[in-house]
Structure formats: structure tokens, C-alpha cells
Amino acid sequence: MLADYAVRVEQSRGRRHPEPPHSYRNDFERDRDRVVHARAFRRLEAKTQVFTRRYSDHFRNRLTHTIEVAQISRTIARQLGLNRDLVEALALVHDLGHPPFGHSGEKALDAAMRLHGMSFDHNLHALRIVEDFELRYAAFRGLNLTFEVREGIIKHSHDYDANDHPELAEYLLDQRPPLEAQLIDLTDEIAYSIADLDDGYEAHLLAVEQIAGSVDLFARHYRDAKGRYPQAAEKLVFNEALKSIFDGLVGDLIANTGQRVQAAGVHSLEEVRRHRERLAAFSPAVEAERRRLKEFLYENLYYSPALAAEKEDAERITGELFGHWMEEPDDLPRNYKEKAGKEPLPRVICDYIAGMTDPFIYQQYEKYCGG
Ligand code: MG
Q: Could you tell me the distance, in angstroms and rounded to a whole number, from the CA of residue 96 to the centre of ligand 1?
């Protein structure tokens, strides 16, 4: 079933703390299950993806987005003969390190940390969650995930420079990650581009003519769908268009990645790792269309005036709470106060805030900053 370039679970570099094998689940299945049962995973349900709950209860949140990424990733992994257990674990864990309030929260936390000569990065935060913050086992801190899942957490979306991150040296920073990890960033893009068009339209922040006027990919698929269903309601034609865009992106990613692997003559995991660039990719034509769609979403949705007030709120709340705890560290919960004795206070506050859900950070803001 597995292609020669896939990760085989027997090849795993293993866990930090050796554990006896499970009688019927392999190590990547166990990692996937550990992620699903983590507290940080459950909190994704109350974290903003793009829209806060103010808009609608049926819009995506970070958890449903994560499930969509896992679904797409499994489909693609099967077609490419990749290790589906590993892919699923990586998809489910990929957004674990996101703070409340989506991108605004991340920006505000990073800005607050930079005042103290540090920074915030959601991939590195996810690694801290699975390595340290989750307390489920008597024998060790964290989830004790296999090397390949930890490596995928930090390498799925970009490459870290070994000089800037000596603490990540064990993760083979001079090599490409396995295809299983390379895939995640691209399926993430597919998932949120389609989902944000969908939710943006439902929220009446994007209109069909507006999208079609700027995004050829959408215009083409909408026209086709309208041709097939001339009498259907606009929303249903819109759905049909999204469905075929979705299918086109996934199909292109499968075909193009397969071709690139073949053209590169790559026949082992080691060759994937040693190849000069990542092999998972859309074809150039589809990549250009995907970029255009992404630009459109930035210009018309993520940076739209309609969402601006909420984003400013998110940044203000995050920044003010951070500042409050810097001045009054005694207001931190006991376990965080204890940590502040061993780690820099800004890092401890950042870790605390990053773990919060949207409702919890609002509640803390009311409590300490008076709302
Ligand atoms: Mg994501």
C-alpha cells in the first residue's frame, strides 16, 4: 500500500521516552489518538479561525478547520501512497499552537513578546504543548510523540534556520521534511481558502459578482455551475462552484506532486529528505490561481473594514492583559507563578495567553482590565 518514498512506522526515530509497543495500534496511530485526547486539542473548538462566534455558530472554528484539513490530507495521502496514520496525526496537530483570536491574537502576542526581546511563533508553541504542557502521563511530561510528528509540527509550514534556533537542532533542519509533513501546509491552504470564501459569502461580506470580478478561478467554476444548474438558487450554484474548485485543487496537488516525485527519481524517504526542495506542490498554473484567490481573501476579507474592529479589539485585549500580568505577576494562577521562578516572565505570560480560548481571554480581560 505504501509508496517507496513514504514514511514507514518501523523507520520512526521513536519517542523521547521509550514505551512498550501497543498490541494493536502502531506508533503513528497512537500519536494521532494522543493529539485527539489532548486538552489543547479540545480548546480548538473555542478558538477563532477567521470569524468569531458573533457571526454564526455554523462557521468554521479552529477545530472544524482542523478536521477539514485532516479529511483532505487523508484523501491525498491515500492517492500518493503516503503514510495515512502519520498524515492524520500531523493534520490534527497542525494548529494546536494557535492562540485565541486567530491571526490577530498571534500578531498581538508576538508584538508583546518583542518588547522583551522575544517572539511568539505558533509552530514552536505547539511543540512546547506536546513536549511539556500536556500532563497526561505519570512517567513524563507532554505527549511523548514520535520524532516524525514533532518534526512535522515545526516543519510543515516553513523551514527554520539552525543558526536562529539551536534548540531545534535535532530536527534535521538542513533536510526537507517527509512528504507526509510537506502536504499539510498545502492542504491547510486548500481548506481555509475554500472555507473562508464560503463563510465570507454566508456572512454577506463577499458577493458572487465581487469574487468573480477578481478571481478567474472562481468566475470559471461559477459560470460552469450556473450552466449546469441555471434554475438553482445562487447559494447552491455557489456551493457547486466551490466544490469543483476544491476538487480541482486537490486533484492538481495529487497529480503534480506525483509527477514531481517521479521526475526527481525519488524512491525513498531518505531521498525525499535530501532533495534540494520540497516535492509537494501545486502545478505552476494552479499555484498562480491559488495565490490570486489568497490575495483576494486578504484584500477583501481578512483586512476588510467589517472585521477590522474585531481585530483591533483582539489585539488590544491581548496586549493589555499581557501588560497587566507583567506588572502584577501575582495575579497569575499558582502554577504559572511557580514557572515564572524558572523561566522569563514574558514567556510564562505568553504561554498562558496562547493556551486560552476566546471566551476565557474575554473573561480574564473583564476581570483584570475592567472590560
Ligand atoms: Mg490551519
A: 9
| Residue 211 within any structural domain of the chain | yes
Ligand 1 center–CA 102 separation, angstroms: 10
Angle at 17 between CA 11 and CA 18, to 5 degrees: 55
Q: Would 333 be classed as within a structural domain? A: no
pLDDT digits (tens, 9 = 90+) for 169-211: 899 999 999 999 999 999 999 999 999 999 999 999 999 999 9
CA of 195 to the centre of ligand 1 (A): 11
CATH number reported for the structural domain that contains residue 209 in this entry: 1.10.3210.10
> Does residue 54 register a pLDDT over 70?
no
Q: Tell me how far the alpha carbon of residue 192 lies from the centroid of ligand 1, in angstroms.
A: 7
Cα 157 to averaged position of ligand 1 atoms, centre (Å): 10
Please indicate, yes or no, if residue 115 is contained in any of the structural domains: yes
**Ligand 1 centroid to residue 367 C-alpha, Å:** 31
Centre of ligand 1 to C-alpha 225, Å, is 28
Name the domain count of the chain. 1
Residue 209's domain comprises 9-307
Q: How many angstroms is it from 186 CA to the middle of ligand 1?
A: 10
Ligand 1 center–CA 158 separation, angstroms: 13
Task: Tell me if 251 is assigned to some domain.
Answer: yes
Whether this model's pTM surpasses 0.90: yes
| Segment among 22-36, 164-178, 232-246, 319-333 with least mean pLDDT | 164-178
- Angle ∠(178,181,182) on CA atoms, nearest 5: 85
What's the gap in Å between 39 CA and the centre of ligand 1?
Answer: 18
Q: How far is the CA of 156 from the centre of ligand 1 (A)?
A: 11
pLDDT digits (tens, 9 = 90+) for 271-301: 999 999 999 999 999 999 999 999 999 999 9
Average pLDDT on 261-280 reads: 97
CA–centroid distance, residue 328 to ligand 1 (Å) = 34
Nearest Cα neighbor of 241 from 292, 190, 291, 194 is 194
Cα separation, 122 vs 167, whole angstroms: 16
What percentage of the chain carries pLDDT values higher than 90?
Answer: 88
State the chain's mean pLDDT as an integer.
95
